[in-house]
Amino acid sequence: MFVKHSESDQLFTLYYGLNNVFFHDILIMFVPPKLLVLLFWGIFIYDRQIIYPTSLDGFFLPWANHAMHTLVLPILLGEVMLEQHIYPKTRNGLAALSVVGFLYSSWVIWVYMSVGIWVYPLLGLFSTTGLIVFFVSHICVVIMLYFLGQTLNFKIWGKHR
């Protein structure tokens, strides 16, 4: 109302671009939830007791577990099919994803260093070398998921630059 039309268009464009990069494509809607599904079910299949002990069955019913760790995947794939996202340049997208990943990993390590308890008890099972391998492989999976999301978006909606 108090902003010139061209300035409000620029603000909207900036908002839409930041919203696409930070909230939909990279940080919330595609990579982390899919990483959650892959890690949870991969570890669950390997050894259920590490990630979801049978003692939790009384607290979390099977449908609640699937709502948190399975239902996410088809919802997110549906979101990719229903809404086109404008991906940033690959370098910029991976840089933003790296910053968030680094901050989150730093927080996980900081909690352990401060309190002596791992946020994810699974991490306590690893040696120092195992932790390094885990975090490096985690980075590789995150990068692959980023490219998967970008590829799916481009296959469904076509390239948009």
Automatic annotation (TrEMBL):
Give me the segments passing through the membrane: 21-43, 63-82, 94-113, 125-149
Compartments annotated for it: namely: Endomembrane system
Which InterPro entries does its entry note?
A: ADTRP_AIG1
Q: Which residues form a coiled coil?
A: none
Q: Which UniProt keywords apply?
A: Membrane, Transmembrane, Transmembrane helix
The membrane topology term of the UniProt record is:
Multi-pass membrane protein
State the reactions this protein catalyses: 9-(9Z-octadecenoyloxy)-octadecanoate + H2O = 9-hydroxy-octadecanoate + (9Z)-octadecenoate + H(+); 9-hexadecanoyloxy-octadecanoate + H2O = 9-hydroxy-octadecanoate + hexadecanoate + H(+); 13-octadecanoyloxy-octadecanoate + H2O = 13-hydroxy-octadecanoate + octadecanoate + H(+); 13-(9Z-hexadecenoyloxy)-octadecanoate + H2O = 13-hydroxy-octadecanoate + (9Z)-hexadecenoate + H(+)
Query: Carries keyword Membrane?
Result: yes
Record bears the keyword Transport: no
GO cellular component: a single term: endomembrane system
Q: PANTHER family this protein is in?
A: ANDROGEN-DEPENDENT TFPI-REGULATING PROTEIN-LIKE (PTHR10989:SF19), ANDROGEN-INDUCED PROTEIN 1-RELATED (PTHR10989)
Family of this protein: Belongs to the AIG1 family.
Q: What is this protein called?
A: Androgen-dependent TFPI-regulating protein
Q: Which organism is it from?
A: Pygocentrus nattereri (Red-bellied piranha)
